[in-house]
Structures are given as structure tokens and as C-alpha cells.
Amino acid sequence: MGLRQDILLFNVESEEELERINTLAKKHRKPARVALRINPDVEAHTHKFITTGKKENKFGIPYPEVKKIIARRKNYSKVEIMGLHLHIGSQITELAPYREALEKTMHLLKELETESNYHPQYLDLGGGMGIIYQNEEPFTPHEFAEMVTPYIANKGITLILEPGRSIVGNSGILVCKVIYRKKGVGKNFLIVDAGMNDLLRPALYGSYHQILPLQEKKNSQEVYDVVGPVCETGDFLAKERALPSLKEGEFIAVMGAGAYGFSMSSNYNSRPRAAEVLIEEDKFYLIRRRETYPDLIRLEAIPPHLQGE
Ligand SMILES: Cc1ncc(COP(=O)(O)O)c(C=O)c1O
Hints:
The chain is built from seven helices and 14 strands. The chain is of the alpha/beta class. The protein has two domains: 10-165, Alpha-Beta Barrel (TIM Barrel); 172-297, Lyase, Ornithine Decarboxylase, Chain A, domain 1 (Beta Barrel), CATH 2.40.37.10. Strand 5 (122-124), helix 4 and strand 6 (158-160) form a beta-alpha-beta unit. Helix 2 runs parallel beside helix 3 (96-116). The protein is globular and about 70 Å long. Pyridoxal-5'-phosphate binds at residues 87, 90, 126-129, 162-166, 259. Pyridoxal-5'-phosphate is lined by residues 87, 90, 126-129, 162-166, 259.
């Protein structure tokens, strides 16, 4: 499909993938433009599940391999290697890991130039720019630009970025309703109608999401574990969180749910997924309707011999 659509670049992250694309390009008689995703082996100082540029991570091609591929690039007759690609992780709040990765990449590019007379047209630095969930102090786009520009200025390289979270993370909230307030042993639970199937980040990464009551409240605070209705102890949205006292039927907003929220949601525990609503000024639009129970089995089929009369 990418070949048919004549996309700008396939970011290729192994030699095996390069070979596959070369074969497909031959078959479809459509040359492919690619960038090699390199693994710069840098520590991004983020959660270990979203660090993607360390040598032990599954992503990217180690530098020595990149050099070998570039040296024999003529063997891939249907593929044009237009440049390099990196994506070192997600929710990165410091510039230092990007700087380290860039330093290494520029060094590699120099070697590729002298050893293989290779000049890239594109350098794709991926995404990963962190946002504020709690009290993080991420670098700004301006600071990022100031750091990157000296490396690539006047080199005839076009810079590509792939920010995801930093565009949408703080533009989405998850609204849920308090179903029960439950007194546990030495703990209060707020059981709400959204769970890990709706927002997986707390369960998956232990992530912090700010929680606010939908209506402003001035009453006293209580400490709750905010949990969902799913059959997993990992089904929580917040732990030991001080919140204004909330009653059954009241609503809370889980902030910062715009990235890796709905896209990571699932139907686990036969839970239909939430509706998505776009808010624009004082107007709102339903942009994805709430799922129904028929939606849950829509794609299933019963083999003929198991069908009843
Ligand atoms: C290759 C690549 N580029 C960009 C992104 C977006 O990352 P982020 O949302 O951290 O900006 C990802 C996320 O996994 C990715 O794998």
C-alpha cells in the first residue's frame, strides 16, 4: 500500500525489512524511498517501556550495520536510501538524550561521507517530546529547535519530526462517573465507570494522570484509590490521590488522556469503548459513537457445525 501511495519514505529498521521492501519494489515495479532507522544506543531517561533507542531495545539498526548497508547500498537496486531516522523514546523531557543521539548521528554521517561517499537528503528525528502530566518541566519546541539547528544548518538536509503525544496528549480528557465510594481496610476506593481498558497508561506504566472533579468543589479532601470495574488489581486510574469528597453519580475528568488513551483502549472484560466528543469553543460534536454490545461481536463467526438449529 505504501508503494502504491508513493509515500515519501519507509523508515526501515532492519536489513531484513530493507530486503523485503526491495523485493516488493521489484515485484510492483515501483522504486521505494527509505530512511534507515538507526539505534543510537542512548538513554532517554523515560519509562523503560517507552525507551526505544538503547541497544537492547528491539528498534533500529546498530551503527556498524548501518555502515555496512550504506557501503553495499547498490545491491538494493529498487530502493533509494534517502536518509536516516531515529526515534529514541517517548515522554522525553530533557534535551540531553536528543543531543547525544544527534552527536552520534552526525559523527556517523561524517563517516558515511568519507567511507562511502554518502549524502543524506533527510534526517528524521522521530517524536518523543514530553508533556506535563504532573510536574514535569519539558523543553519547549523553541528550545528543541535551537538545539537541533546548528547540527543540520547548511548541510542540505531536510529535517523531519514525528511528534505525537506533544500534539494531542493534553487536548483530551477521559470523563467518568463515580459508581461507588467503597471503604476498604485503611483505604478509600472510588470505583468509576472507566477502567484500564479505557486508559491503560496507569496500569501499563504506572503513569500519573491528574484527576479533577467535573464540577468545582470546595468541600474537604479525601484520599482515594481511583479504580475501574475491570477484574484486575492493575485496573486503577490513580493511587492514594487527595480529591474533594465525591458522591456516587458525580463526574471526574482524568486529564492528559489525549495520547495513548483511546488508541490503546480495548474491549477487555466485554466493555464497549467510550464515545469520543470533540469540543470546539462552546460547541461539541460526537466524533465516534459509544460502542454497543452488538459491536463487540460484530466480527465474530460461528462455524456451521457449532450453529444451533
Ligand atoms: C517511530 C515513531 N515516531 C513517533 C512516535 C510518536 O511518539 P511521541 O508520541 O512520543 O511523540 C512513535 C511512538 O511510538 C514512534 O514509534
